[in-house]
Each structure stands twice: as structure tokens, then as C-alpha cells.
């Protein structure tokens, strides 16, 4: 993955922090989420059609894997931008925040 330029003004330490993804990254994330959304609708349809449970469970596993991919991509970009920036500003609280988030992702 290539390093992408970011505008760092959006990572200010406020209650209304914002990400600063490049358009390429944002489009990638939205595309992945659109596919996942379609997969979820597909699972709903499978359940409505009384599809064999194992087939539905395999589709759910695929969705979970896709969501994990979105999470990994977001985590990577967060660490390379906001986390680095906040550490450079002397804000060590970002490490606790990051660890809490990572624990949630790994459940």
C-alpha cells in the first residue's frame, strides 16, 4: 500500500474529530461497504427463502471477513495519520484510545 498525503487539520483533539482519508481511500472503503451491504441483503433474502442454515452461515462468515478487512484498512490509515500526529503533538492518550479500539475489534 502506498503512503497517501493527508491534510492534518482534521485530527484536532476535540469532541468532533474527523478523519482525513484521501479520496482514493474513502472510495475504496465506500465500495467495500456497499458490497457488504449487498451481501447482508442477500443473507436476509436467503433466510426469507428458508435456505439451508449452513449456506447462510457461510455467507455470514464471508461478511464478517469483509468487515474485518474494512476495519484493518481503517486501522492502518488511522495509525499512519491521526495516531502519529497526536503522538507528535505529545498526546499520549491516543495510545489508550487505540488499545481500547483494538480490543473491541479483536472480540
UniProtKB/TrEMBL annotation:
GO biological processes: negative regulation of DNA-templated transcription
Coiled coil: none
Pfam families associated with the record: Trns_repr_metal (PF02583)
Organism listed in the record: Paenibacillus lactis 154
Domain of life: Bacteria
InterPro entries named in the record: Metal_Tscrpt_repr, Metal_Tscrpt_repr_sf
Ranges for region Disordered: 1-26
UniProt cross-references to PANTHER family, sorted A to Z: COPPER-SENSING TRANSCRIPTIONAL REPRESSOR RICR, TRANSCRIPTIONAL REPRESSOR FRMR-RELATED
GO molecular function: DNA binding; metal ion binding
Designated name of the protein: Copper-sensing transcriptional repressor CsoR
